[in-house]
Amino acid sequence: MVVEDEEAFVDALSVGLAREGFEVEVCRDGGEALRRFEEVAPDLVLLDVMLPTISGVDVCRELRRHSDVPIIMVTARAAEIDTVVGLEVGADDYVAKPYRLRELVARMRAVIRRHRPRGGPGEESGLEGSDEVAAGTLLVEGEVSLDIARHEVRVHGDLVTLPLKEFEVLSLLMENPGRVIERSTLIDVVWGYDYVGDTKTLDVHIKRLRAKIEDDPANPRRITTIRGLGYKFNAI
Ligand code: CA
Questions:
Q1: Please, what is the average pLDDT of the chain?
Q2: Rounded distance from Cα 52 to ligand 1 centre (Å)
Q3: Do residue 148 and residue 208 come from a single domain?
Q4: Is the pTM of the predicted complex or chain greater than 0.85?
Q5: What are phi and psi of 77, to 5 degrees?
Q6: Are residues 138 and 228 part of one domain?
């Protein structure tokens, strides 16, 4: 459910998200979002902060009274994110306009994935129902686990120390296991939109990451290269 009053964004999101396989319902103001929430029963709400009738902040608070639907809030400027986060309205993630569709989609998939109940086949049964899993801060894929809140990575249960950028690259890959994350998305998310440096920096970080999390860094199986496109995390 896209809650957005600016036509340019509504049009771009309707087309772009449909192309990514999402079914999009648009609400043009906060009141409409609250009225239609039950009927639409969305898997995710993309919620603009500045809205007519009822603000995105108040819509989020109201939804949180009875729903744990994933919510990504959209602010008009990056600087506003701190203010909105400080209000603790219960959103799952925040993005600032202008954003790139591919970054938004990566975050949407990550939030939806974190929200899914864990404990299905292939999950370690000991983790079921733990607070960390419920809070969505612990990603477990194969023999690698990543705790976002504690900033900890374990491989085969052994603690591995990662600098911030390597940690961010790994968490983005692990939030979307089995999916190719484009080089440009990784660079955008980790280094920012205005990054103009040598994109080889990404390859250097991937190489260091592999040295720490692969059983055989010379023949990587967890982080694989999709030539000309990007990288993919495989649960091994
Ligand atoms: Ca707006």
A1: 85
A2: 8
A3: yes
A4: no
A5: -140, 150
A6: yes
